[in-house]
Structures are given as C-alpha cells and as structure tokens.
C-alpha cells in the first residue's frame, strides 16, 4: 500500500557556536551533567567522553541538515553493504573535517587538559580485518565529502577482530573490548528494529485471484536493532550515517520459555541470538562456524534491505522507482545473499511478479569484487542454505534456471561453460557460489584496479563475462587524504601548503604542483626533517611496545598488512636472514643500516600465517641480539596492528613493501598511504602497483619479480622449485639455516615444513622471486646512499598520489554505477 511521504516543516535549529569559549563551556557542562563528574576529580577518560559529546553536538547540526536536505530534494541514496568497517578513532577525524581542531585544543588547554592525550585514549572501533574494511571506511568518508547521500550498513560487533598479543613469539588471540565502556558516537534507533528469521519451512498459499505464492514460515526469529554513527565529510560538506545492527532475542519467545520453566532454553535462545554480533569472522573451519558466518551475513543483509525498502516506501510510496532512487553496493561476497533476500521481499511481501522483481533487483545492485583467490569467493553447502534459508534456496534455484537457460541459448556456449556460470557448484559436494549470485543479480560488477579487473574477465568470471560482457568495469581503489595525509602527517601537510598553497586540501590532483620542488635542496631538507621526526616518534613507539631500540637514522623498511602467504612476508624475512648472513660475512663493507618493521594479524585457523609471525619473531630475537651485526640490522614485529598504529607507522616509513605474488593482490591501499607520505615502494607489478608505476614513473618506484603471465606460465608447467633453489646459493643457505633450527634452537624442526613447501611447490613464487627481490633491495640501498636522489623520489611520490584519492574513486562510482550527482 502507498504510504504518505514525510513532509518536513519543522523549524531548523541554529547551529551551535564553535568559539573557544562556547566549546569550553559545553565540555564542562557535558562533564558535569552527562558524565557526572566534578572537574576537580575528573579522570582523562571522563574528559575524553565530555569532549566527544561536545564535538558530536556540533556534528549533529550538520547531520540533521543533511538528512532533511535529502528528504526535501528526493536525491538518490547510496547504500554500502559491508561486513567490515575499519573506521578507527573518530574524534580527530570529525574535528579536523569540521574545522574544530584548534578551538577544541585551546578550550581543553584552558581546562589544563591535553587534546593529544585524549585522542590517543580513544579506542579503535574493531569492526574490520584489513584493507576491505578500511576501504569501506574511506569510501563512507568520501561519500560525505563529495556530497552523496549515503548509508553504510554493517554489524555492531561486540568484540570485532581479536586483539593480538605475543607469547614467546606466537600470536595469541584475545577478545577486543572496544565497547567495554560504551560508544559515545552512536545512537540507538529503537524505531529501526526488524525481525530476521531462520529455518522453518515454505508453504504455498493460494490468493483469492487463484495465484499461488510462497510463504516462508521461519521457526527462529531474532531482532536486528540499529545503532547509528555520524560520518563527517571534509569541511562538513555533509554528514552521512553508518548504521550497524545488533542482534537481540525477541522477548516473547524468551518469556514463554521462562514461564514454562525452561530457564536453560531461554538462556540458550538469548545466547544464540547475541552470538551473531559477538565476533567478527568466526572461525569457519567447522560446520558450526560456517553456520554462524552465514547467519551473520544474512542477518545484516536482511535487516539492511528491510530498512532500505521501508525508507523508500515511506518517501516515495511505490517500489517501481527503486533503481531510480536507490543504489546498493555489495562490498565483496559477504552481502551476496541480499540478491535473494530482496527478491523475497519484493515477491513474497509486496506481491511483485518475478520478472518485474528481477528487473528491479538487477537495476538496484552493484557488486565489488576484491579477490581472485577461489577460496575467498564464498560458497555455502546447499544443505546448509536449505535448512537455514529454505525460501532463499528456492529463489537461488529459480535465478539459476534463468541464467542457465540464457547460457544454453547463447551460440557457442559449451556444457563446460554452462557449468561454470551456474550458481550451483556440483564438484565435490553441491555448494552455492555467492560470487556468481552477486554477479548475476547486479547491473555492475567492478574490480578495484586495472590489472585486477582484466584478470577477473580472464579467470574467476571469464564465462559470466562472456554471457554478460557489458557488466564488468574498473574502479581503482583510493584512500581518504584527510586521514592518511592531513591528520596522520600534519607537519608534512603544513609544509606542502606553504610551498604550493592550500588548494590540494580540496583537490589532491593539485599535489602535482609539488613536482618542481623535488630537486630543490632546501625543500628536500625540510621534507627529510619532517620524515626524521616521524621516524623518531615511531622509534619511541617501538621501544614502548616491544622494548627494541632502533635508530631513526636507519632506513625504515615497512611491511604492515594482513599476514597471508600471497602477501609474502616470508620473502621479506628470508631477505632479512640473507642480509644478516652478509653483514656477518663481510664486516668490512659499508652497509646501509636498516630496520625491518612488520605488523599484521593472521587468521586464527591459518597455521602457516601464524608460523610466519613466529618466524619473524625468532629471526628478530637472533639478529637483534647478535653483537656481530653492530646494530646495522634490526627486525621488529609490532603486535595488534590497527588503524591507529598505522597512522604512526605510515608517516615514519622510508620503504613500502608491496611484494605480493603477481596477479593475487586485487589492489592494495596501504601502498597508496605510504606513497602519500613520501615512502619509496618496492613491489611487484600487482594490483594498484601497476597504476602507481604509471603515475609516479619507473624511476621513482622499485619493481621486481615475475609478471602475472610468468607466474601463470610457471604454475602451468612441470618446473621443479628445487632446481630454482639449487641455482641460488644465497637462498639455499638461508633456507638451510631456517630449516636446521638456527633460529629455533628450542624446536629445530619448527620450520621444516614451511621451508619444505618452497622446495615442493612454491605456489606463491617466494623462491623464484628471491634473487630478483634481493637485487631490488640492493638497488634501494644504492638510492638511499644518495640522499638527495632519495629525497627527490620521496617528494615525487607524494606529488603523484592525487589519483589515488578515494574522492576520485567515489566520483567514478557515482557517475558510472550509481548514477548520482556529486559536488
């Protein structure tokens, strides 16, 4: 039934004052009346909460204005569905974007409180794992900055990704308690709560007109409750909403159990519901873990779609305009079940015919693919989906029938190609391919770098691309320059402003104006001085966190990212061992002092990744304590990598390690953050490195290793990796020392299988790229010795990073996929 649209005719409240005096008065008021503390006894965490509330009040004005403006003008909204949002700390981000940093700092100073101390106390929102979640956070901020009305939808994890600690060099996973003391940024929206069902059965129902429709009768229900966080754009252009869902049991069910005396059953029901939003990425190596993961994905997808449809009907009254007013972007396959859920809502709840509903669904969804790894393209056992989501399995079968019929009518499509485009994988147990579901249910499928997009067409979606050749397009990733340059490196931002003016703050392409300064000795000296100060800050952090003393004068060689074999932290640590051997064997040479810095988390069930962390720490223990090295080489592993840690490491890096096996990294965004802060990149021609090479020029980036084509060629032939190792005495010596227990005397065989894998198959081309990598590192040393040349390259990297702004990426999404205007 059409609903009456909301009409806003209430007066618009005046914005709160932003003078030092007004902010100081409100911080005190919030401290007393909201936090409940006398200033005389207030602790730092009390001042932090009071300050956040005062800042939040000033953001609320813009938030309300943004919402009203969208309703009044009927602008198309973008909805970004992501299982991860790695937003980090919010206070500094918000203050910077609305110009409150200086008045808040002065107001607190008048109250004898240091703003920097408060910023460092704010917990990171533990809502993501790595690049995927950080990209989502950058995109939300950019959507606000370029004026796109948008919602981000995700899960309000109680613990999120685990807190990583080290025990004798091994990763230990502990609960991340970022919500332990509440979250002053969020607002609970009790009116935005939706029932989400699981299990049960499907019944055919005959309507009075004789039409037969399907009605899902779940036997399990829970409630999705919304919590909203404001996401502020640059200069307060607009404030959008991050809406996170919390799972709660539905009280009547529990009340019935309690009243019947089934107290244990009631508690189990409550725990089962709350488990859905307890932890990010439960281990899915067991059937129970797989079921919980699928429950998470459907829970947030269903709640989000119910909310989107409700809002659309509230404003427009009909569903026919859905693709014209709503754009839903699926961030990877995690929300792919949304395709089936939207079809269910349109057909079963709103009575639309199949063909019409399918047209609306495809017109509304876009899908971003982030991986070429087959194991990362999710699939679920058919039996699990049939048990947990029986109606959705029916819909998947019906969608699949249409796709296969279309493929069979396509001239030249073989039986093998038809099987490849099927939503059901029949090999080794029937499974639903979620990447295929997202693909066929979307009008746009994009990769996240030029290379990745082309490889999508040739590999994971080759046959779907032949069936729907107009759908795949490229949108190279980007980073928000506000957090990853202006906020994390204010000294460099100030220096650039003094040299080329402040216009680059609003348009990062203007950074190109810095290029003529790359050869200016005076500017080089200023640029290098800022880098050195950032390295001193990082050195202090290393001393505080892991009690290792490093020299800021050394080359800081940094690899910070999720620990995974394809990202090749192993290649980096093998080079460390080789360098260690060289320094001891040739003390007479003039060595470049180097600090190798690692950080990143390994998935709890990923044994080899956890073993690589242990190897890094074992190698660090030996090298850092060997007097023969004379401090020329240090190895550091910083635990519990998160956004706030990255904000200190990135500005202090000299060398950015982007060394993934060619053809396996979709894009990367860490490479862009380092580039913005004047680090030189050593990397393969993989992901966005290819476009970075184009932007900065071949002389300002160090590229090595096999190409994507060469990797595939070597995998396809019967080349024995052992022959490669035997041909490299340096590599053989390194592997022998690791395998024999030189770095693990307590367990000499600890790394035997890890090293043996390089002899047996070397899938990630670590051995094959080792010599080229060492040669590239020697080239890095040569550049470092010519500090004028190094500084010039560093400046050119910063000057050339403009293309990699997430503002550019979002404008391309807006123009090519979402069809929404930008500011």
UniProtKB/TrEMBL annotation:
<keyword id="KW-0963">Cytoplasm</keyword>
<dbReference type="GO" id="GO:0005980">
    <property type="term" value="P:glycogen catabolic process"/>
</dbReference>
<dbReference type="InterPro" id="IPR000811">
    <property type="entry name" value="Glyco_trans_35"/>
</dbReference>
<feature type="modified residue" description="N6-(pyridoxal phosphate)lysine">
    <location>
        <position position="673"/>
    </location>
</feature>
<dbReference type="InterPro" id="IPR011833">
    <property type="entry name" value="Glycg_phsphrylas"/>
</dbReference>
<protein>
    <recommendedName>
        <fullName>Alpha-1,4 glucan phosphorylase</fullName>
        <ecNumber>2.4.1.1</ecNumber>
    </recommendedName>
</protein>
<dbReference type="GO" id="GO:0005737">
    <property type="term" value="C:cytoplasm"/>
</dbReference>
<keyword id="KW-0119">Carbohydrate metabolism</keyword>
<keyword id="KW-0663">Pyridoxal phosphate</keyword>
<comment type="function">
    <text>Allosteric enzyme that catalyzes the rate-limiting step in glycogen catabolism, the phosphorolytic cleavage of glycogen to produce glucose-1-phosphate, and plays a central role in maintaining cellular and organismal glucose homeostasis.</text>
</comment>
<dbReference type="GO" id="GO:0008184">
    <property type="term" value="F:glycogen phosphorylase activity"/>
</dbReference>
<comment type="function">
    <text>Phosphorylase is an important allosteric enzyme in carbohydrate metabolism. Enzymes from different sources differ in their regulatory mechanisms and in their natural substrates. However, all known phosphorylases share catalytic and structural properties.</text>
</comment>
<dbReference type="Pfam" id="PF00343">
    <property type="entry name" value="Phosphorylase"/>
</dbReference>
<dbReference type="GO" id="GO:0030170">
    <property type="term" value="F:pyridoxal phosphate binding"/>
</dbReference>
<keyword id="KW-0808">Transferase</keyword>
<keyword id="KW-0328">Glycosyltransferase</keyword>
<keyword id="KW-0021">Allosteric enzyme</keyword>
<comment type="similarity">
    <text>Belongs to the glycogen phosphorylase family.</text>
</comment>
């Amino acid at each position: 039934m059409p609903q009456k649209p909301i009409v806003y005719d209430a007066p618009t409240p005046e914005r709160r004052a932003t003078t030092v005096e007004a902010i100081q008065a409100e911080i005190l008021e919030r401290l007393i009346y909201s936090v409940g503390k006398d200033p005389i006894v207030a602790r730092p965490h009390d001042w932090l909460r009071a300050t956040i509330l005062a800042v939040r009040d000033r953001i609320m004005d813009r938030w309300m204005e943004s919402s009203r403006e969208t309703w009044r003008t009927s602008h198309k909204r973008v909805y970004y569905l992501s299982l991860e949002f790695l937003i980090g700390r919010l206070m500094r981000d918000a203050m910077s974007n609305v110009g409150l940093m200086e008045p808040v700092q002065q107001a607190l100073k008048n109250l004898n409180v240091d703003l920097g101390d408060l910023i460092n106390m704010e917990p990171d929102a533990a809502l993501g794992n790595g690049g995927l979640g950080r990209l989502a956070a950058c995109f939300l901020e950019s959507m606000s900055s370029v004026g796109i009305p948008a919602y981000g939808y995700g899960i309000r994890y109680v613990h999120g990704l685990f807190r990583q600690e080290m025990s004798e060099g091994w990763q230990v996973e502990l609960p991340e308690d970022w919500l332990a003391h509440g979250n002053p940024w969020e607002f609970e929206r009790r009116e935005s709560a939706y029932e989400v069902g699981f299990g049960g059965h499907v019944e055919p129902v005959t309507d009075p007109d004789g039409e037969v429709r399907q009605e899902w009768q779940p036997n399990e229900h829970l409630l999705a409750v919304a919590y909203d966080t404001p996401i502020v754009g640059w200069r307060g252009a607009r404030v959008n909403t991050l809406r996170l869902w919390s799972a709660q049991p539905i009280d009547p069910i529990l009340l019935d159990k309690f009243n019947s005396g089934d107290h244990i059953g009631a508690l189990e029901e409550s725990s089962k519901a709350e488990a859905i939003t307890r932890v990010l990425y439960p281990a899915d190596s067991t059937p129970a873990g797989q079921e919980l993961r699928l429950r998470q994905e459907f829970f947030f997808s269903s709640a989000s779609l119910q909310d989107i449809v409700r809002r659309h009907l509230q404003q427009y009254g009909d569903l026919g305009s859905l693709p014209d007013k709503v754009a839903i972007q699926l961030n990877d396959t995690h929300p792919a079940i949304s395709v089936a859920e939207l079809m269910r809502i349109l057909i079963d709840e709103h009575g639309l015919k199949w063909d019409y509903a399918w047209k609306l669904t495809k017109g509304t969804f876009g899908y971003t693919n982030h991986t070429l790894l087959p194991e990362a393209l999710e699939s679920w056992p058919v039996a699990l989906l049939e048990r947990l989501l029986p109606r959705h399995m029916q819909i998947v079968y019906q969608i699949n029938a249409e796709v296969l019929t279309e493929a069979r009518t396509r001239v030249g499509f073989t039986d093998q190609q038809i099987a490849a485009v099927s939503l059901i994988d029949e090999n080794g147990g029937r499974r639903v391919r979620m990447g295929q579901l997202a693909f066929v249910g979307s009008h746009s499928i994009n990769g996240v770098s030029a290379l990745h997009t082309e490889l999508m067409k040739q590999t994971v979606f080759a046959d779907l691309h032949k069936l729907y050749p107009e759908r795949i397009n490229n949108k190279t990733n980007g980073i928000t320059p506000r957090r990853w340059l202006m906020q994390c490196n204010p000294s460099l931002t100030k220096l650039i402003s003094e040299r080329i003016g402040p216009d680059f703050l609003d348009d990062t392409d203007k950074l190109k104006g810095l290029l003529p300064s790359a050869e200016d000795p005076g500017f080089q000296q200023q640029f290098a001085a800022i880098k050195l100060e950032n390295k001193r800050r990082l050195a202090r952090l290393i001393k505080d966190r892991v009690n290792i003393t490093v020299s800021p004068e050394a080359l800081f060689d940094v690899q910070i990212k999720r620990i995974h074999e394809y990202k090749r932290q192993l290649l980096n640590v093998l080079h460390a061992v080789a360098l260690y051997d060289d320094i001891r064997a040739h003390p007479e040479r003039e060595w470049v002092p180097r600090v190798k810095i690692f950080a990143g988390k390994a998935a709890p069930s990923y044994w080899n990744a956890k073993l690589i962390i242990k190897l890094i720490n074992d190698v660090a223990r030996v090298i850092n304590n060997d007097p023969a090295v004379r401090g020329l080489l240090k190895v550091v592993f910083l635990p519990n990598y998160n956004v706030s840690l990255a904000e200190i490491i990135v500005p202090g890096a000299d060398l950015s390690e982007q060394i993934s096996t060619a053809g396996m990294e979709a894009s990367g965004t860490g490479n862009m953050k380092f580039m913005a802060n004047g680090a030189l990149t050593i990397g393969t021609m993989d992901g966005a490195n290819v476009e970075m090479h184009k932007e900065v020029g071949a002389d300002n980036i160090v590229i090595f290793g096999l190409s994507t084509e060469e990797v595939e060629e070597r995998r396809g032939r019967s080349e024995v990796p052992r022959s490669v190792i035997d041909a490299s005495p340096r590599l053989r010596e390194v592997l022998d020392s690791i395998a024999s227990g030189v770095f693990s005397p307590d367990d000499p065989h600890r790394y035997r299988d890890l090293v043996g894998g390089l002899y047996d198959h070397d899938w990630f081309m670590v051995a094959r790229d080792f010599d080229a990598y060492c040669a590239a590192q020697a080239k890095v040393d040569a550049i470092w010795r010519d500090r004028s040349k190094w500084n010039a390259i560093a400046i050119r990297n910063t000057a050339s990073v403009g293309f990699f702004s997430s503002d550019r990426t979002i404008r391309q999404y807006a123009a090519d996929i979402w069809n929404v205007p930008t500011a």
